[in-house]
Structures are given as structure tokens and as C-alpha cells.
Specification:
Elements lengths: L2 H9 L6 H8 L6 H17 L5 E7 L1 E2 L22 E2 L2 H13 L4 E5 L6 H14 L5 E5 L5 H9 L4 E3 L14 H13 L3 E3 L2 E4 L5 H13 L4 E6 L16 H15 L4 E5 L12 E7 L17 H10 L5
Parallel strand pairs: 1-4, 1-11, 4-5, 5-6, 6-7, 8-9, 9-10
Antiparallel strand pairs: 2-3
Helix pairs in contact: 1-3, 2-8, 2-9, 3-9, 4-5, 6-7
The protein binds iron/sulfur cluster.
The site of iron/sulfur cluster (SF4) has 11 residues, from loops.
């Protein structure tokens, strides 16, 4: 299949087929066609999003062993590899939220492990929401739930939820794939924005598997899309499988942007400057617990600050 033809049809506004998208993913990194793919994704983002970039921030509000045992996560209970265990009280979360509001973020995410009590989470979230200016979108990143909980999330002021069917869900995690899909449907039924991601991408995942998640995002008409490469966290079962390169991530991000057609923003995680050349216009700052880090205060280790993100986005001439 001819890359030039696919690229032209993307630029003409056509929705590309699975077969065409797989052709793009199979393009050799470092080839001329590789840069054509980045260029098209870049053009779509710059034009369709008016050159606007976004800064999101996530606070991980607990660091505790999680029964879902994801083989890539530093908080899986059978291989817990963070240096400490804790839950943040509202006061601590509130102070962190104040700093992020001050830093002028666009969206605020609160994250917990899957076992965190939902009523405690809702109580903290309700108070946080009262502090947030209406311009900041409020997003939950928690375990699975039904429509009733989705409606409660909406009631306390969340505008969206980050939730995904992970790569090798049910194999690398102790969660049934159907459970994840039911939660995705509950989010949409409740009228919350679904934030989606192809993750956590490792060298062993096939392009077919990645494509399944890109297509799922397109079917859900997501506004905000992302890709994330797996970080080989010491102590986690998938550590020895290693990591894909930044070049590979950039290609996957560009193809994901082209295929899934988000209407607001495209992200690649963790922060990888190269991806900003290929249609990525949104980055995450992180505070607190993070499944990709051994340090339970990720802002002291892997987490990137809002100021660093601002610099990266403005360096590639996005408007923030
Ligand atoms: S990724 Fe989430 S669900 Fe999986 S073990 Fe970690 S905290 Fe639990």
C-alpha cells in the first residue's frame, strides 16, 4: 500500500481504515515515510486545534498495595516496589491543588489505586471541586465502577474520567477485560468525557493490539487521546521486557492521532519531547504516587513539573 496515497487521504479529511493504519505503523523508523507520518499528524493537530497546547496535572492521592496486581505497576500487591505506603489527607491534597491552580493548568486529575474506598474519594473530590475555577476540567482516574458511581462522580463535579482497556488486559492485570469495557460504557452513559490511551506499550505488543485500542478510542469519539510507553520499573514483573524507543513512541503517537481523531488534544506519556513534532499538543505534570515510579512522590523523581512542560510546549511554538 502506498504511503503517499494514505497521507493524501488523511489530509483530505478521510477516515483511514485499519489496514491503512497498520501500513503506517509498519513504516520503518528513520525512513522518509516515518517523517511524512509525523508531519501529517503535526499538521492535523496544529490546524484542527488552532495551535493550542494543554497542560494537565495529576495527583496520585494514595500509595498502597493494589489487589489488581498489574505486572507493570509499582503498586501491585504481590510486587509492591515503592519505598513507602500512605494516603494523603484532604489538607495535603488541597495544598497541592492550590499550587497547580496557581500554575495555570487546564485539567486536573485525581488518581487512586483500584481498592481506594469510593466514598472517601468522592468526599475529597467534592471539596477539591469547590476550589477549582470553572475553566479547569476535573478528571477522575480510579478503579472500575458502574453507572451509579459514574453519576456520583458527575454529581460531585467531575467533568471526565481517564479509563482504558489496557494492552493485555486480563493477562498482565487481574482484571477481566469485560469489566473495563463496562466502566467505559458507564462513563459515556453518565455523560462524562472519556480520556483514553493506548498503554502501557512495551516491545512485545503487536501493532494489531495497538490498533484495537486506537479503534476503540475512535468508536468512543474521545476528545482527548494519548499513548504511553511502559517504563520498566525495577521490581515489577514486566521489568525485563524493556522499553520501546522514543522514535517508536513518536511514530505510534502520530498514527494514533491520525486514526483516533481526538477533537481536543493528543498526548504521549511519559514526557518525550520528540513526540511534540508529531501531533502531540498536551503533556502531564505529575505529583504523588505514580505506577511508573518507585518513588511515591513522583515529583521528586520521574514526574515532570508544570513549568518544565510549559517550556517544552512553548519551545515547539504551541500557544499555551
Ligand atoms: S495500575 Fe492501577 S489497577 Fe493496576 S495495580 Fe497499579 S494501581 Fe492497581
Amino acid at each position: 500500500m502506498n504511503i503517499e496515497k494514505i497521507v493524501d487521504s488523511v489530509l483530505a479529511g478521510c477516515v483511514i481504515s485499519r489496514e491503512e493504519a497498520l501500513t503506517l505503523l509498519n513504516v520503518e523508523n528513520k525512513s522518509t515515510d516515518f517523517y511524512k507520518i509525523l508531519s501529517v499528524a503535526n499538521r492535523l493537530t496544529r490546524q484542527n486545534f488552532n495551535n493550542k497546547a494543554y497542560i494537565f496535572a495529576q495527583i496520585g492521592i494514595n500509595a498502597e498495595p493494589c489487589t489488581k496486581n498489574c505486572k507493570f505497576c509499582s503498586m501491585g500487591k504481590d510486587h509492591y516496589s515503592m519505598e513507602s505506603k500512605w494516603r494523603k489527607d484532604y489538607k495535603t491534597v488541597s495544598q497541592e491543588v492550590d499550587k497547580l491552580i496557581e500554575a495555570n493548568i487546564d485539567d486536573l486529575f485525581l488518581m487512586t489505586t483500584a481498592d481506594y474506598p469510593i466514598d472517601d474519594f468522592l468526599a475529597i473530590a467534592e471539596k477539591v471541586k469547590k476550589k477549582l475555577p470553572p475553566t479547569i476540567k476535573f478528571v477522575a482516574n480510579i478503579g472500575d465502577f458502574d453507572v451509579n458511581i459514574a453519576l456520583k462522580l458527575k454529581q460531585v463535579g467531575f467533568t471526565g474520567v481517564y479509563h482504558i482497556h489496557r494492552l493485555k488486559e486480563g493477562i498482565d492485570t487481574d482484571i477481566e477485560p469485560e469489566t473495563r469495557i463496562k466502566t467505559l460504557d458507564a462513563i459515556v452513559t453518565a455523560g462524562l468525557d472519556l480520556y483514553y490511551c493506548v498503554e502501557p506499550i512495551g516491545p512485545e505488543h503487536s501493532y494489531q493490539e495497538l490498533m484495537d485500542e486506537m479503534m476503540r478510542a475512535r468508536d468512543y469519539h474521545v476528545k482527548v487521546m494519548a499513548v504511553m510507553r511502559r517504563i520498566p520499573v525495577p521490581g515489577t514483573p514486566l521489568h525485563d521486557k524493556g522499553q520501546i524507543t522514543a522514535l517508536e513512541l513518536a511514530k505510534i503517537a502520530a498514527v494514533t492521532r491520525i486514526v483516533s481523531l481526538p477533537s481536543r488534544a493528543m498526548n504521549a506519556h511519559e514526557v518525550t519531547p520528540l513526540t511534540l513534532l508529531g501531533g502531540v499538543n498536551q503533556l502531564y505534570a505529575e505529583v504523588g504516587a505514580n505506577p511508573r515510579d518507585n518513588n511515591s512522590n513522583t515529583e521528586k523523581n520521574r514526574g515532570v513539573s508544570v513549568s518544565a512542560i510549559k517550556k517544552l510546549l512553548s519551545d515547539v511554538e504551541y500557544d499555551i
